[in-house]
Amino acid sequence: GDSVTQMEGPVTLSEEAFLTINCTYTATGYPSLFWYVQYPGEGLQLLLKATKADDKGSNKGFEATYRKETTSFHLEKGSVQVSDSAVYFCALINSGNTPLVFGKGTRLSVIA
Amino acid sequence: EAGVVQSPRYKIIEKKQPVAFWCNPISGHNTLYWYLQNLGQGPELLIRYENEEAVDDSQLPKDRFSAERLKGVDSTLKIQPAELGDSAVYLCASSLGGQGSQETQYFGPGTRLLVL
Fold first, then answer.
1. Is the pLDDT of residue A104 over 80?
2. Confidence grade of residue A63 (pLDDT, cut at 50, 70, 90)
3. Nearest-neighbour CA in chain A from B80: distance (Å)
4. Cα(B94)–Cα(B105) distance, rounded to whole angstroms?
């Protein structure tokens, strides 16, 4: 079945550091790929998405590029802020009648 | 525009008691999802509705869990009786929908359940 694997956390960075959270997927067909963010005590918020190969999703300084050849969708940000501290989930939804499939999440802590 | 609304936000009950969660999706969203999120894990689908029809309930433990979406808008998820292992966050999400679509899903804040 479809699956998502993302790097385990927690990840601790200093403010203004570069962030990469790796995400790879296994899926049949042509999935859409998503990054969701969950701030403490809140629900999941869509951060960005990409629907086809080579698409780049971007939002709030975060970027991720849909790489079909490496089945990856790594999340990057050039300069993190304390307010970026949260849990980040990579997810996919495949063609057909399937639900979102999530990775286990990566907790990011940014310290001043 | 209002997002997905869930209530209650927190619930503490004793094992063997019943509990119910309520969800109001974004207006106009035909597809509604209930997900279960265990601590340190990503959400996993429990049930998906297209309008009032449950089109995917294969992961719903039907011996104790039930759900309904009367009139194709609000939805209620019930557990009876609750067990210790049901302690988790129950997330509701909605999307514009359509069979086989890859529409973006929008999540509510979740209900955090603790079973003692």
1. yes
2. very high
3. 25
4. 5
Token pair in block for residue A92: 């996919």
Contact yes or no for A43 and B110 at CB 8 A: yes
User: How far is CA A37 from each of CA A43, B15, B22, B68, B104, rounded to the nearest angstrom?
Assistant: 8, 31, 23, 28, 14
Q: Report the C-alpha gap between A62 and A103 in whole angstroms.
A: 18
Ranges of beta strands (E only) in B38-82 are 44-50, 53-56, 65-68, 75-79
Distances A49 to A8, A24, B58 between C-alpha atoms, Å: 21, 14, 27
Structure-block tokens of residue A71: 């089945």
The CA distance from B78 to the nearest CA of chain A, in Å, is: 20
Contact assignment for B110 to A34 by CB distance below 8 Å: no
CB atoms within 10 A of CB A28: 11
- The average confidence (pLDDT) of chain A is 93
Q: How far off is chain B from A59, nearest CA to CA, in Å?
A: 15
Give residue A107's identity as a one-letter amino acid code: R
User: Under an 8 A CB cutoff, do A99 and B56 touch?
Assistant: yes
pLDDT tens-digit series, residues B64-79: 999 999 888 999 999 9
